[in-house]
């Protein structure tokens, strides 16, 4: 069959499934059995089906593939709203912290031009190879984390300034021994952790406070790693009076550990995370943090994706979205 002649109905008939099932497969819904998914993908490949949102019998909207490293529900909810208003539908994949790979399913989606672009959020650094391959076929826009650096398109907050502003904010509250918990013990640490540490150091220089290297501890994404770092801090001759964490989940682990150990937060020590409003508010003790606006990040990411799909921009760029600092119950 000639290119772009096949319709969703044709795919459904060849695969022996309903049109709704074809639509779910294209959106990567988890409500489709592996057997039916394979039949649909084989039919798409055999017929050479390619999405044309303006043709009768085809999907009406272009599809963006959103890949998240974890459960970034706040980001996904905002992207859903913004994408729908912009004429897109989205399919979402969660990698559960694992790197994105060019698996068979992804290759078929790309080969048959079912998706128009890929948005990422919170992927581990090892995903760079797959993203570079995908970007040769459809546009990739990275949100919050810059993994693929060659001619990359990124929408995020300024991580250096997030670390800088967190320290200045804690300083205004009277904190002078501010510790930093980063993610340097990961095999391939997130770049934002290093950038936020840089901001931490710059702020100390501005305040005229020498950086005590004993107050900087590196962790990975596990609770045990954070607990060990806290134990090391507690063995110091003088405890820190505040801890700034490169990631909200690290701060939540710190709050849990210190509270169990009988240390009152924020009376004895202030804790500040870095991330989103949702992750901060769902902690049992609402977390003070440097907050990124996922809505604004999503809006600019969709705008940038539109420009890339329409061929209006070919040179990589990074858009920084303004962050805010919110005091909740873990700072004085």
Automatic annotation (TrEMBL):
Q: Which GO terms describe its molecular function?
A: DNA-binding transcription factor activity; transcription cis-regulatory region binding
CDD domains in alphabetical order: HTH_LacI
Where does this protein have coiled-coil stretches?
A: none
Indicate the segments forming the HTH lacI-type domain, all copies.
Answer: 6-62
Keyword Nucleotide-binding among UniProt keywords: no
Which SMART domains has this protein been placed in?
HTH_LACI
The residue range of the signal peptide is: none
Among its keywords, does the record have RNA-binding?
A: no
Which keywords does this Swiss-Prot/TrEMBL entry list?
DNA-binding, Transcription, Transcription regulation
The molecule here is called Transcriptional regulator, LacI family
């Amino acid at each position: 069959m000639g290119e772009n002649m096949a319709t969703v109905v044709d795919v459904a008939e060849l695969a022996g499934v309903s049109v709704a099932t074809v639509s779910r497969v294209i959106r990567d819904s988890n409500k489709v059995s592996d057997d039916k998914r394979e039949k649909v993908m084989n039919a798409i490949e055999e017929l050479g089906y390619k999405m044309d949102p303006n043709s009768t019998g085809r999907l009406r909207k272009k599809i963006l593939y959103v890949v998240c490293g974890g459960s970034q529900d706040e980001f996904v909810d905002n992207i859903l709203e913004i994408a729908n208003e912009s004429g897109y539908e989205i399919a979402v994949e969660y990698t559960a912290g694992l790197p994105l790979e060019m698996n068979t399913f992804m290759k078929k989606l790309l080969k048959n031009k079912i998706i128009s672009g890929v948005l990422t959020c919170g992927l581990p650094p090892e995903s760079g190879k797959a993203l570079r391959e995908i970007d040769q076929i459809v546009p990739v826009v990275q949100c919050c984390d810059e993994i693929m650096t060659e001619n990359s398109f990124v929408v995020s907050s300024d991580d250096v300034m997030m670390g800088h502003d967190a320290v200045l904010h804690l300083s205004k509250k009277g904190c002078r021994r501010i510790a930093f918990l980063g993610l340097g013990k990961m095999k391939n640490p997130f770049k934002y952790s290093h950038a936020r540490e840089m901001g931490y150091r710059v702020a100390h220089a501005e305040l005229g406070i020498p950086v005590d290297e004993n107050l900087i501890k590196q962790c990975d994404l596990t609770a045990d790693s954070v607990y060990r770092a806290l134990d090391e801090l507690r063995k110091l001759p003088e405890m820190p009076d505040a801890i700034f964490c490169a990631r909200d989940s690290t701060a939540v682990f710190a709050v849990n550990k210190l509270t169990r150990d009988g240390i009152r937060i924020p009376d004895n020590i202030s804790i500040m995370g870095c991330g989103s409003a949702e992750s901060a508010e769902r902690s049992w003790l609402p977390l003070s943090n440097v907050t990124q606006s996922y809505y604004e990040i999503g809006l600019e990411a969709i705008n940038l994706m539109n420009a890339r799909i329409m061929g209006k921009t070919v040179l990589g760029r990074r858009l920084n979205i303004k962050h805010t600092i919110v005091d909740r119950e873990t700072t004085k």
